[in-house]
């Protein structure tokens, strides 16, 4: 006998599923943020699952519902950052048609993810080598994928005759490493400039060397950057 669904039941089930997924996302974010905070300070081997549970305000049992080992938790922290990049960067550059401004939009979006996940970024540098080979290979593959929008934007600027001929892979990857420096050298940059000034300063330096001179006026707003400190004027 066919089963009929009462009107509105399907929509209620969909809403319940969406709400449950949202709650799980909140819990996952709590766990990953707590793990990143603690592991970045002392290393994953020095941090117990109980300490992470206490930091996140959840039970140890809840952690094991999501992650069966500490290594799985470390891997999830790192992949979470890469997933956020994979989601945010294409959406940031999609509405931008100008090739040079695409590069700027990609760099800004990438740097914003680093800013929002500073501890997790540091954990990536600290802990990736401790993961198994399969996890390391996955992280490398995802990192290459997240760099594709920047590479494609750079290639577009070169092909349009706006950037000088150069190695697009090296230039685009350099920009990604520069974005990482907000996390890696946060103690230095945060004392001297805002995040917004960091982004505009780094962009102005990189684009000045990449743009052909005849286009400097066209992109004067990107090349200007913030005003330098008083002791450098």
Automatic annotation (TrEMBL):
Single GO molecular function: DNA-binding transcription factor activity
Domain of life: Bacteria
DNA-binding interval(s): 48-67
Biased composition (Polar residues): 1-12
Alphabetical list of InterPro entries matching this protein: Homeodomain-like_sf, HTH-type_TetR-like_transc_reg, HTH_TetR, Tet_transcr_reg_TetR-rel_C_sf
PROSITE patterns: HTH_TETR_2
Region of interest: Disordered: 1-25
Compositionally biased residues, Basic and acidic residues: 13-25
Name assigned to this protein: HTH-type transcriptional repressor KstR2
Organism: Corynebacterium comes
Encoding gene (name): kstR2
């Amino acid at each position: 006998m066919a089963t009929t669904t009462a009107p509105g039941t399907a929509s209620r089930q969909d809403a319940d599923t969406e709400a449950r997924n949202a709650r799980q996302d909140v819990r996952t974010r709590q766990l990953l943020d707590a793990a990143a905070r603690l592991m970045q300070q002392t290393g994953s081997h020095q941090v117990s699952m109980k300490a992470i549970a206490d930091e996140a305000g959840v039970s140890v049992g809840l952690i094991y519902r999501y992650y069966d080992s500490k290594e799985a938790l470390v891997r999830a922290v790192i992949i979470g950052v890469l997933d956020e990049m994979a989601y945010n960067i294409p959406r940031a550059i999609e509405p931008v048609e100008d090739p040079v401004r695409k590069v700027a939009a990609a760099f800004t979006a990438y740097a914003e993810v680093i800013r929002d996940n500073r501890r997790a970024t540091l954990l990536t540098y600290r802990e990736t080598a401790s993961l198994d080979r399969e996890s390391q290979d996955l992280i490398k593959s995802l990192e290459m994928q997240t760099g594709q929008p920047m590479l494609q934007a750079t290639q577009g600027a070169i092909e349009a005759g706006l950037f000088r001929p150069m190695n697009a892979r090296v230039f685009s990857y350099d920009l990604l490493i520069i974005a990482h420096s907000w996390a890696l050298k946060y103690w230095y940059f945060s004392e001297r400039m805002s995040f917004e000034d960091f982004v505009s300063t780094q962009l102005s330096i990189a684009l000045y060397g990449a743009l052909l001179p005849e286009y400097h006026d066209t992109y004067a707003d990107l090349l200007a950057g913030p005003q330098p400190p008083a002791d450098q004027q």
